[in-house]
Amino acid sequence: MARPIHISALIQALQFQNPQPDSLRKLSRAEWEQLLAYSDLARLTLILGQAWPEELPDWVRERIARNLADNRERLSLAQCTYRDAADALRAVGADHLVLKGFSQWPYFVSDVRLRPQADLDLYCPAESLFRAHSALLNIGYEAGRTPEMHIGQVGDHLPILIRRQSSRQWRGNAFDPNISLAIELHYQFWGRSYARFGPTDLNVFWTRRCNRFMQGMTFQALDPLDAFAFSALHALRHLLYGGLAPYSIYELGFFLHHNAQNDRLWKMWPAQHDAGLRLLVVAAAFLAAEWFGCRLPGAVEEEIRHLPPVVFRWFKRFGESALGHLFEFNKDALWLHLALIDSSRERTSVLVRRLFPLWFPALNSRWVQEPDEGAGTERRNRLQKCITYLNWFVVRIARHLRALPSTLWGGVRLWAS
Fold it and tell me: Listing from the earlier edge strand, what are the strands of the sheet with 210-214?
């Protein structure tokens, strides 16, 4: 898949080695608008603004300055949300640690204010999970509607928790400080039951947690190597199921690039993570090197050389398609998913599930846009919901059918090679 010119200009400008910002100067206003729409989804807008302010048109620089100011407010909101939640969890003795978000600083981002944060992700061990859930309900949160198939399978967390009467309305601003943060309570670091491959137990991550400090706030987070592994698994999961934000890969590239000469860190790696986990981690690391040109530690390069040949071929043939998934639906990642599964039976199950998805959300699911409850009569509202759902259903079926021929042909080319 050829990159559109605006995506190519963005990725070339954000290379860790030999960046090429020249192509930014050649973009028209329409192409800049396309770039910003994409970089907001990719969560790379603030990074671009920091890296090359002199290469940006005045109106783009002003727009990103507003985004940065908004994101600083969102960071303050995230910190306040965490403090309130942490106080409630401590009051009932519910242990937890922070995943993603502001806990990625300083290992995965140079300035925490440059990292967009949509939700607050907390991991709780089994004995604390439901105490934590009840404590958050008691301070004004309520469970959002989450499709059943995503509970305990893909998402690895309970249904999201949202403050009652808080605003989650999209207003066209990816950095809107007025949108409240939902809380996700995670109970596993990898959902093997749905992926059908990967580590069976990563509870050791919890035992190696460490204290972190940021702007007068103390919290617990993953050990740096475990955070690297979790970030890689998180990126791989989104690569396989869709919705991979390129920023997740950029963060991996940041960690690798700035720790390329950290021999002490990489000497601990084999003792801390077994060969199966390292294989999955370097699959995502390989994508970081391919997309953003980061330096790789010698230990990571060695592991990449041991990738299964079909996995290596997939990244060379289809690595670009994941960049375009945000604007063009495709199922190329299916073949990577199958390559990572050992069992033929499990492979067949995933193949059928991904080619012919038979799951559909309930009529009232948050995955299907609902009309305004206050408009018209109850009967009219019910009819509007049915029409909205039917439209969503037809669009979804058509999208999967359109992707089927190219998906099958891509699999034939990959496996035949």
Answer: 141-143, 161-163, 182-186, 119-123, 97-99, 217-221, 210-214
Distance of CA 301 to the CA centre of its chain: 24
Per-residue pLDDT band for 363 (boundaries 50, 70, 90) equals low
8 Å CB contact between 126 and 206 = no
Q: List, in order, residues 6 or more apart from 233 with CB less than 8 Å away.
A: 189, 190, 198, 280, 281, 284
User: Counting beta carbons within 10 angstroms of the beta carbon of residue 47, is it exposed (0 to 12), middle (13 to 18) or buried (19 or more)?
Assistant: buried
Q: Which residue intervals of 139-197 are DSSP H helices?
A: 192-195
Q: Are 114 and 235 in contact (CB under 8 A)?
A: no
Q: Tell me the per-residue pLDDT of 264-297, one tens digit each, with 9 for 90 and over.
A: 999 999 999 999 999 999 999 999 999 999 999 9
Nearest CA-CA partner of 381 in 389, 371, 368, 391:
371
Does residue 156 contact residue 184 with C-beta atoms inside 8 Å?
no
- Per-residue pLDDT of 180-202, as tens digits, reads 999 999 999 998 888 899 998 89
**Do 400 and 357 form a contact (C-beta atoms < 8 A)?**
yes
Q: What is the pLDDT of residue 369?
A: 47
The phi and psi torsions of 51 (rounded to 5 degrees) equal -75, -40
What is the β-pairing status of strands 182-186 and 119-123?
Answer: parallel
How far from 45 is each of 50, 155, 231, CA to CA, in Å?
A: 9, 26, 20
Give the integer Cα–Cα distance in Å for 132 and 89: 5
Q: Tell which residue, 103, 121, 132, has the closest CA to residue 157.
A: 121
In the structure, what pLDDT confidence band is assigned to residue 391 with cuts at 50, 70 and 90?
confident
Return d(Cα 184, Cα 144) in angstroms, integer: 10
- Report, at the CATH architecture level, how domain 81-222 is classified: 2-Layer Sandwich (3.30)
Angle subtended at Cα 107 by Cα 291 and Cα 211, rounded to the nearest 5 degrees: 150
For residue 369, the 8-state DSSP code is -
On whether the CB atoms of residues 323 and 11 are closer than 8 A, the answer is yes
Which parts of 169-296 fold into alpha helices (H)?
192-195, 204-207, 224-241, 246-258, 263-272, 275-292
Amino acid in the structure at residue 331 = K
Share of the chain above pLDDT 90, in %: 65
- 169 pLDDT higher than 70: yes
